[in-house]
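Encode chain A's predicted structure.
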Amino acid sequence: MSPSKVRDGTERGWIVPIGGAEDKENDARILERFVNLCGGEDADIVVIPTASQMADTGERYETIFSGLGARRVTSLDFDTRRDAEEGNRLERIEQASGIFFTGGNQLRIATMLGGTSIARLIRSRNAEGVHVGGTSAGASILSEHMIAFGKEGSSPTAGSVRLAPGLGLTNRFVIDQHFRQRDRLGRLLAALAYNPFAVGIGLDEDTAAFIRPDNVLEVEGSGAVTVVDASELQFSSMDRAGEDDPVCLLGLKIHILIAGATFNLHTKQASAGTLASPKKTH
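Encoded structure for chain A:
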């Protein structure tokens, strides 16, 4: 599916994928920034815990976001595809200033919501300015092309990744989460070998990419974001590789970004951002 069209004179909402295991208590700066983005004391957030099979996930995020100052937080779960067509659920999405997907299994979100009225509404609401974020599996689902599952390891093989349709807020990037902690460079590279148009974004735990309406990515959190730019790919052996064969990729660019650094998804330019400012001494 294609992202919803942004009308003239309006801006798309921010897209905020988080690498999972974000700090929720001691230094919840990622979630706090999401709340502030959604309006701070006026924030009206819908939490979608469908990826998780833990009964208290939605309730936990309700408590967290409320504790960070959001005016209203509602957990909206979907146990069947029929749920995604209910008028009261659609109405609640219409009221929200922010929508947040929890972690779990991204294929569960795709199975329950893919192609439904709720999925179409979330895309259109984001195009109208509503901010959409997600952590772990909830981060993977945000883009058009989603990593469904794959193998760990630093080297790409033809069979190291399986892709599936995501929510489709954007087609500019492919997300992988728990990136450094679970050694997922190989499967992100394999995903880009299948689809060099997209930018690969590997999110460490407790690290987020705050993607602005102008498609500039700002890093927040305690870890790093690995950005893989395949736009100048010179050669790929993916077309001749067997399932377990390594894949040759020439011409990739890799950037390692930490909090304060940025990457422009349109121009493909990375910047140290606030990190480039001289360090103050006393």
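The first helix runs from residue 29 to 37.
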